[in-house]
């Protein structure tokens, strides 16, 4: 894994946006895997700036989001579909028909998972997948488990994730208990992976991902197997890594 440590959240976000923008400038019809949560907000802000001020063109880009809560749709403010519209899709010239987020309101959730996995394949696979990381080292909503999930699937969220995500909801009881998430297998198929992490509370998860045993108990540790995975961190998230592992 390549590990790049930046001085601050802002610097991490700028570097991440540069990597995505480079991908789009080189391959305008690239397929991006996108993430939600607090971590990528600064990166999206910078991408919007690059679109407005430097003509970064999203018109041929295709995107697939990692996950969505079961039971929430675009009209729900807390849905990841709504998040993506607010933080990126509505502010750049991406074609809405080329953006994909799992349908958390599908009647047949298992069928929706299969459909989503197939759609990624039909688009030619993901060229560059952006990831955040949970405090428990989850990626997407792939929670610590006794196995690595192969495909897009329905997951039961862990109490710790529900607690962490309750900051986006009025009450903890409002946080959905289930989500649809790309599997670890889906994520590993991406040609390149860019994982972002900032803040002291992610330092242990980052350490486990980079230097821990490869185990489904720390889902991000599987990235050690990926030939083109890069971690872009701020200093606090990198604080438990030994100097020699940073580039
Ligand atoms: P965060 O979430 O960016 O809101 O910290 C990351 C994650 O849980 O994957």
Protein described:
With 247 residues, this protein is α/β, with parallel strands linked by helices. The chain is built from 7 helices and 10 strands. The strands form 2 sheets. A 7-stranded parallel beta sheet has the order 1-10-9-6-2-3-5, covered by helices on one side. Strands 4-8-7 form a 3-stranded antiparallel beta sheet, with helices on one face. α2 links the parallel β2 and β3. α1 packs across α2. The longest helix is centred in the N-terminal third of the chain and has 18 residues. The chain is globular, with a radius of gyration of 17 Å. The mean pLDDT is 96.
The helix tally amounts to 7
Bound molecules: 2-phosphoglycolic acid
**CATH class membership of the domain at 12-127 and 140-183:** Alpha Beta
Looking at the structure, the CATH topology of the domain at 12-127 and 140-183 is Rossmann fold
Proportion of residues in helical segments: 25-40%
Number of strands: 10
- Our measurement of the CA-to-CA distance between the termini, rounded to an integer number of angstroms, reads 10 Å
Strand order of the largest sheet: 1-10-9-6-2-3-5
Mean pLDDT across all amino acids: 96
Structural class: alpha/beta
